[in-house]
Structures are given as structure tokens and as C-alpha cells.
């Protein structure tokens, strides 16, 4: 049985951080999508998606993150994903090799 997952959201001075913990499988995606949508509806200056505490990220979760990243770009919200899992970095490079869906800035630290 997979590890339980949690999604923690904090907001501070125009910056929203979403921290994912545990295995983010397809059952977690609706909760992830809701958290990302709520964070972006607050029109933050920046959105930080912290994936450092996850051992597994499903393809559908990666899709939700990339969709939120594109939505954030359209709203001129900076997105930072510090030290993303290798598979997500490769997926981002494959889907958006020039970073066009992530303008004005989307940093993968």
C-alpha cells in the first residue's frame, strides 16, 4: 500500500507554497488540482511547488503541475519548483523544451 500523501499550502506576502508529501498517485490528483487552482485564484506573485518529500509522482500529477505552471504564466505568476524529481524535469523538457508555456518566469531550481 502506498504511503499516505498530504498537501500543505501556506501563503505569505504574495508567495504561496504548496508542499506535497508522500506518494502522489492518481487518487491524489483531484486534491492536488484543487490546491493548485485555489493557490492561483489568490493571484500570488509567486507559487512554489515543493516536491522534496515525495517518493513517487504519477504522470497525471505531473500533468496537473504543468497545467498549473502554464496557468500561472498566463497570470504573470512566477513558479518555482526546487529540485524537482528527475522524471518531472525530463517531462517538462519534453513537453515544453523552450519553456514557452512557463513565461514570464518559471524556475526549476
TrEMBL record:
Coiled coil: none annotated. Residues 5-109 form the STAS domain. It comes from the Bacteria. Pfam families: STAS_2 (PF13466). InterPro entries: MlaB-like_STAS (IPR058548), STAS_dom (IPR002645), STAS_dom_sf (IPR036513). This is Antisigma-factor antagonist.
Amino acid at each position: 500500500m502506498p504511503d499516505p500523501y498530504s498537501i500543505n499550502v501556506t501563503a505569505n506576502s504574495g508567495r504561496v507554497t504548496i508542499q506535497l508529501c508522500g506518494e502522489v498517485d492518481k487518487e491524489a490528483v483531484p486534491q492536488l488540482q484543487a490546491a493548485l487552482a485555489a493557490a492561483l485564484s489568490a493571484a500570488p506573485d509567486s507559487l512554489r511547488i515543493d516536491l522534496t518529500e515525495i517518493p513517487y509522482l504519477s504522470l497525471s500529477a505531473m500533468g496537473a503541475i504543468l497545467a498549473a505552471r502554464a496557468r500561472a504564466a498566463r497570470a504573470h505568476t512566477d513558479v518555482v519548483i526546487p529540485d524537482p524529481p528527475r522524471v518531472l524535469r525530463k517531462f517538462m523538457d519534453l513537453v515544453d523544451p523552450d519553456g514557452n508555456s512557463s513565461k514570464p518566469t518559471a524556475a526549476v531550481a
